[in-house]
Specification:
Length: 267
DNA sequence: TTCCATGTTCCGCA
DNA sequence: TTGCGGAACATGGA
């Protein structure tokens, strides 16, 4: 489930399992996921290199190579990364495999082929090309920055939270979670928020994302007050026990509690 | 069988 | 110009 917290967990996973291991061979199973228009093959570019670190901007993960280049991974709706030792440990739907000289492997797997793999020489140029907004988990993303982003914004809060060019990293599930904790109706408008409402939304947003990362995005590890583990057909509101409702908002299905999320409810 | 799903991108509309 | 709705992409589960 790749929104910002999921991608952050993937980044930390790579940091703790796959760094400093020279790559012996690369297997691109799904060439359609490689979006480089020009330049050397992914195979040629990665063989002999090792992974040295990671960066993240919203839902995009950048893995630094030992020669200064970068492997970009985007996870679409279903992507993940896994390391394993022998071939029997390979995940289902593997689309890219790096085999290390020590015999181990790193796989990028995705059930649906909606992700993106790319070799980059310049991360900033890529971020500019996508027009990505700031990453809300960065320590320097402050309340004033958030206030400025929302200033003059029309439309729904949910739409603003999910607009990657405004803020990078929040998708459908976490926008629902944030609205839930802020007590905001899924159709609440940015213009419904007063100064205090914006501040509350900022603190809620940071808190939800940080909490999800701390829980390693494991639903069972989320605090009991979180909606995400109940975000399905007949799930109940963790606050009041009422059955959660669904509503189409900005093109996505929003889950919400009619009783606990009344602020900004359209007339 | 049909609909739906955490992603992005494109189009048309108001 | 901006935000939204809908379609498209791909594949499987309910």
């Amino acid at each position: 489930m790749p929104e910002l917290p999921d991608v952050q967990v993937h980044a930390e996973y790579i940091e703790s399992t796959a760094l400093h291991r020279p790559v012996a061979a690369v297997d691109v199973r799904e060439p359609g996921l490689v979006k480089n228009a020009t330049g050397p093959d992914v195979e040629a570019r990665l063989e002999g290199r090792s992974l040295e670190g990671t960066r993240r901007r919203g839902k995009y993960l950048f893995v630094e190579l030992d020669d200064g280049g970068w492997l970009l991974l985007h996870f679409g709706m279903t992507g993940l990364v896994r390391t394993y030792e022998d071939a029997s440990g390979e995940p289902e739907h593997t689309r890219l495999v790096l085999r290390f000289e020590d015999g181990g492997h790193l796989a990028y797997a995705a059930l649906r082929k909606l992700g993106e793999i790319r070799i980059l020489e310049d991360v900033e140029a890529f971020v500019r090309s996508k027009g990505l907004g700031p990453d809300p988990l960065k320590p320097d993303f402050g309340l004033d920055d958030f206030r400025e982003l929302l200033d003059g914004r029309r439309g729904t809060v949910k739409g603003a939270l999910m607009d990657q060019e405004l803020i990078a990293g929040i998708g459908n599930e976490y926008s629902d979670e944030i609205l839930f904790h802020a007590g905001l109706h899924p159709r609440a408008k940015v213009s419904d928020l007063d100064e205090e409402g914006v501040e509350d939304l900022y603190r809620t947003l940071r808190g939800v994302l940080e909490t999800a990362v701390r829980a390693r995005v494991d639903p069972e590890a989320f605090p009991s007050s979180y909606m995400l583990p109940h975000r399905h057909g007949d799930g109940e509101c963790p606050g009041c026990g009422r059955e959660l409702e669904r509503m189409r908002v900005v093109g996505r299905t929003a889950y919400f509690c009619r009783r606990c999320q009344r602020r900004g409810r359209p007339g």
